[in-house]
Structures are given as C-alpha cells and as structure tokens.
Amino acid sequence: MRLLLVEDDEMIAETVLGAMRRAGYAIDWAEDGRAAELSLGNGVYDLVLLDLGLPKKDGIDVLNAYRKSGGAAPVIILTARDAVDERIRGLDAGADDYLIKPFDLDELAARARALLRRRTGQKQPVYAHGELTLDPAAHEVTRDGAPLPLVPREFALLQALIEEPTRVFTKAELEEKLYGWGEEVGSNTIEVHVHSLRRKIGAEQVVTVRGVGYRLKRC
Ligand code: CA
User: How confident is the model at residue 23 (pLDDT cuts 50, 70, 90)?
Assistant: First the structure.
C-alpha cells in the first residue's frame, strides 16, 4: 500500500509520515499543490491525505484536477475546524472523508484502513496462504492459528507477498512497497527484512528465486 500526504506544514507532515510508516504503509510527501499534482500523475497511490490550504495550488483545485483526469484513489481531506465551506467543497470535489485538525493519529490510521478496505472491495479482507493468515485491518498475522508478532516492515513485506501469492517480486518492487521517497534504503535492506520475516513465519515460507527476487512458497 502506498500513500501520498499533501501538507505544507512540516510539523504536521513529519508526525503523519511517522505514524503511517509505523502502521506499515509506504508514504510520500508533497509539500505544495504543484508537487502534489506531479506525484498524483504517477498513478501509484492507493490513498491520498490532502490538506486544502496549500502554496502554489489550492487543495480543492488539486482534487478537482485529479478526479477529472480519472484519478480514483480515495482521498481524505485534512482541514481546519472552522473551514466548513471548504470541507463541503472538498466532499463535492470528490473527497471520500475528512478529518479536522488537530486530529488523532489513531483515528487517521483507522479511517485510512477503512477506505483502503473499501477500495479492495473486501468486507473482511483476511488473506490466507497455507498455514498463514494476514488480516490488514486488525494488523494480525497467524500461523496455524497462533498469532505472530511482526514489526511493521515485516508485516508490509508479508502483505505484499500474500496479496499476489504466485508472483515473484524483485527487490526494487518490494522496496517501493515498503518505503516512501527520501527514506534511506540500504542495498541489503530487503534481504534483512526477508531474513527476519523468515525467522518468524518459517524459513520455507519465503522462497528465493535466484537472480529475480522473492515469492511465497507454493501451497
Ligand atoms: Ca496548509
């Protein structure tokens, strides 16, 4: 899952980026309206968190242009308490939800999960593969029914693999799923996460495809 945060207030941005990364999402940051439009043009985002009062281009205009160009990712507006008109304009322009600043980070994460769940069209999206299950909403992984405590990056790695269990992922593809821009990614970072994930879920669960990357074992 890859998110875009559009927010010009650096302090709010750092807080949201940190919270969403801890929750296991890759998230990028655009700090003005033009940067947001450029980023959204990539079409890689599953969810957008959008401030409205932005330098260079207003958030409502960004949203209007995004929807007109066919952009379909859910959008949560982050807005000030007194800006009722803005909120209404935002919803009319195609936002899916809004949060009033200052907002609770757990609530933001919960609303994000709800929208992402709706987007994947599954009411209760629990992935099962062999003896493993992964529940994105509850952030839970089990093996033979026993819960496994995974750290966020291990969780995100397993989620990427289990969502497309027959696909072989390259390291670059996994890096893109696990990290936002500007995050330091060492050359062996994915190997390290694979190693620690294998220790927790069983070494045989993640298969190395030599010269290509990784996939889940067949079952
Ligand atoms: Ca602002």
Answer: confident
CB 95 within 8 A of CB 5: no
Mean local confidence (pLDDT), 182-210? 93
pLDDT band at 87 (very low <50, low <70, confident <90, very high): confident
Q: From the CA of 54, how far away is ligand 1's center (Å)?
A: 5
Q: 1.10.1530.10, 3.30.565.10, 1.10.10.10, 3.30.70.1350: which CATH number matches 127-216?
A: 1.10.10.10
Distance 7 CA to ligand 1 centre (A): 6
Q: Which residues contact 174 (CB under 8 A, 6 or more apart)?
A: 157, 160, 190, 193, 213, 214
Of the pLDDT bands very low, low, confident and very high (cuts 50, 70, 90), residue 182 is confident
Ligand 1 centroid – CA 34 distance (Å): 14
- 35 C-alpha to center of ligand 1: Å? 14
Residue 100 CA, ligand 1 centroid: distance in Å: 12
| Dist. CA 53 → ligand 1 center (Å) | 4
CATH of 2-121, one of 3.20.170.40, 3.40.50.1950, 3.20.20.60, 3.40.50.2300: 3.40.50.2300
Q: What is the pLDDT of residue 184?
A: 81
Q: Cα separation of 29 and 24, whole Å?
A: 16
